[in-house]
Amino acid sequence: MGNEVKKIRVGLIFGGRSGEHEVSIASAMSVYNALDKSRYEVILIGIDKTGRWLLPDPKVLLAHAGNPMKIQLGQMTGSYGLAPSGGATQMIAMEASAPAPGHFDIVLPIMHGTFGEDGTIQGMLEMAQIPYVGSGVLGSALGMDKEVAARLFNAAGIPTVPSMCVRKHEFLNDKAAVEDSLVKAFDFPFFVKPANAGSSVGVHKVKSPEGIRAALEDAFSFDLKIIVQNAIDARELEVSVLGNDTPKASIVGEIVPKHEFYSYEAKYLDDNGAELKIPADNLPEEVREKARAWAVQAFLTLECKGLARVDFFMDRKTGALYLNEINTIPGFTSISMYPKLWEASGLPYAQLLDELIRLALDDSKKRRELRVTYA
Question: What is the spatial distance between Cα 77 and Cα 304, in angstroms, rounded to a whole number?
Answer without folding.
Answer: 37
